Amino acid sequence: MKKQIILLLIMLLPMAASAADAEADKTKIFEVNNPDKKLSPYTGMSREHWKQAAEYLLSTAFKYVDNIKDPFDLPKQEGKSYPRNEGDIPTARMEELCRTMFLAGPLLKENPDLTLNGIRVGDYYRYQIASFLDPKSPIYVPMKKGRGHGGQKLVELGGLAVSLLMAPDVFWHPLPKDTRDKLAAVFKTYAEGGTIDMNWRFFNQCLLSFLHREGYQVNQEYLQKLTQDNLNAYVGDGWYHDSPLFDYYSMWAFQMYGPLWAESYGKKYYPDEARQFMSNLADITKQYPYMFGRDGKLQMWGRSITYRMGAAVPLALTGLLQSSDIDYGWMRRICSGAILQFLQNPNFIAADGLPNLGFYDHFENCLQHYSCRGSVFWMSKLFLALYMPADNPFWTTRETEGAWTKMKKKSPYNVYSERTKILVSDHAALGMAEFRNVFTRNSGFYYGLENYNRLAYNSALPWQADGRHGEVAMSYVVEGPNGKWLQINSYKGAGLNADGLFCRTAEMENDKSVTIHMAEEVTANGVLRADTVKTNGPRNVRMGFYALPELDMPIVATETKVKGKKAITIDNGQYALTTVLAEGWDAIEVVRCHDLHPEADNSVVVNLKATADGQKLLKSQLIMKKSKRGKR
Question: Is residue 64 predicted with pLDDT exceeding 60?
Fold first, then answer.
């Protein structure tokens, strides 16, 4: 007999805001006015709506500008982001300027008189770019000295170079020649300086290319090397290797900079390399579109996830290929869905009127120290698609749901890349996209964390952070000798075998004596797991599947049985997730969590617990369904 346990997750703050707050919240959410359901039956979004969305985002920053001489000075959110001292402030302001240009450029190309908050936008950016030369300016950019790289200033100048390549008549040519020459001299010290052997190479490459196109002498040998090194990072199936792993930097860096460089410079000066970048872009349709949900939602994955829908930009840029082999209706459906995923989320815009640092709301667990408030505007890379004219097939093709319409509901639709060891599994009955990947111990500081070490990532169920007391979602933790719960630090030996099992071996943070040999069979609505834990003594082990956020109603937990095995289902009114204790586990429990989930203050996850001593086989199952509970 089922025993129902109602989890009354009592909050310190009331769940419902006042009527006035609710009305204020409505003004934060982007609305698709006069949706074009003939062209875009799923999102209603046409190219004009994209322009409106771009202006909506840009206007959030211009609320903090009083006059043309007033540099962006966006308020810092509490936490690890910078600026952390006065010395950081000029770089943060520069970041805010250069990243918002991804929105301003396409808009100004079509509307040179664009005005926001009483400020003529084109005049504002031109004035601020010229201010790089003024030592008294808050955004002064000095000549770079020495052979090292230019740090965050190089990053932002690289982004600026993209806007200058794409819209020189907006941002560059109107400046006086003397100003242009002085700026070029400054830019050259960064362009010909050092870099970091990863996606940073593009910052130097784009700066050098812009300067050369404008008639300035540059180190062509260095430009050639940077270009070839970036091409050499390509491994196939649409993926570049960002030294040392695969993540969204393959997409919002390599698969964005490469094609735009090819279009604006490479086709004329480096035609062979330009063709290769475009060929690599064409490969992106092999796997990457399947990583988005049927509704276009993208996965919360990897560092810099606060860049959000910027991850969809290469799908939009496939319009540059104008290929009859590409389903542009599906590409735009994904991209528009990704825009709405965030712009229509009520927590996306903070109380100060700016996008939060996080995924939806402000979420410290997914952030890195190199981000400032302006960092979020790298999501605007998706709007670089607006440089493509209105008659491009990306804009004119009717929206479709692509491969989703051909998927069977009784089995997962798997797309595997042997080159990257990434397995994408689409669940047709749920509209969810899910994937499993691998990263290694030498991947660096950012990678042994939840951004990379989850057992799987899901477009509908974003990852929850691990808690200090062993709370864990979609991962394993092992208790260390000092009582600290250790996370997975790397995967190795990953691959999809002939039996359809995704296999890999996990190693734990700062403890090579514990390994977990994993075998996963993805099902139509979940996964079957058979994992062998190996230790050199008794160790407490915990594992959890996805956590659910508490949204519109209390979460219900139900104890039940699945094929005679003990199980618990948690249901938040949107999804019902069942965890089955199949074999080897000692206990199963419902864990209430606070401040660990990106969608809500409170969440619930089911954890399995065991003590392993030597070697122990642990079997479990996850069953995912849509909730049948009514909304209150």
Answer: yes
Burial of residue 559 (number of CB atoms within 10 Å: 0-12, 13-18, 19+): middle
- Give the β-pairing of 575-583 and 615-626: antiparallel
Farthest-apart Cα atoms in the chain, separation:
83
Instruction: Give the residue from 563, 505, 538, 543 showing the smallest Cα distance to 619.
Output: 543
115-134 pLDDT per residue, tens: 999 999 999 999 999 999 99
Nearest C-alpha neighbor of 578 from the set 519, 504, 525: 525
Q: Residue for token digits 């000549």?
A: 143
Whether residue 577 contacts residue 545, with contact meaning beta carbons closer than 8 Å, is answered with: yes
Is 134:140 a contact under the CB 8 Å cutoff? yes
Residue 449 pLDDT grade (very low, low, confident, very high; cuts 50, 70, 90): confident
Q: 132-153: per-residue pLDDT in tens?
A: 999 999 999 999 998 899 999 9
Q: How many CB atoms lie under 10 A from the CB of residue 510?
A: 11
Q: 3-state class of 242 per DSSP?
A: coil
Q: Are 485 and 469 in contact (CB under 8 A)?
A: yes
Give the C-alpha distances (Å, rounded to integers) separating 252 from 185, 281, 389, 505, 538. 28, 12, 21, 29, 44
Residue 461: the pLDDT is 98
Return the pLDDT at 147.
85
Where in 524-572 does DSSP place strands (E)?
526-534, 539-544, 548-549, 556-562, 565-571
Token pair, residue 450, equals 């939840």
The DSSP code for 149 is B
What does the radius of gyration of the chain's CA atoms come to, in whole angstroms?
25
pLDDT at 7 over 50: no
| Rounded Cα gap, residues 567 and 355, in angstroms | 40
Identity at 243, one-letter amino acid code? S
Alpha helices in 111-176 (DSSP H): 121-130, 151-166, 168-171
Q: How far is CA 333 from CA 47, 305, 360, in A?
A: 12, 21, 20
Which among 160, 162, 208 is positioned nearest to 188, based on CA atoms?
208
Any residues with CB less than 8 A from the CB of 105 and at least 6 apart, and which?
Answer: 163, 166, 167, 170, 171, 384, 387
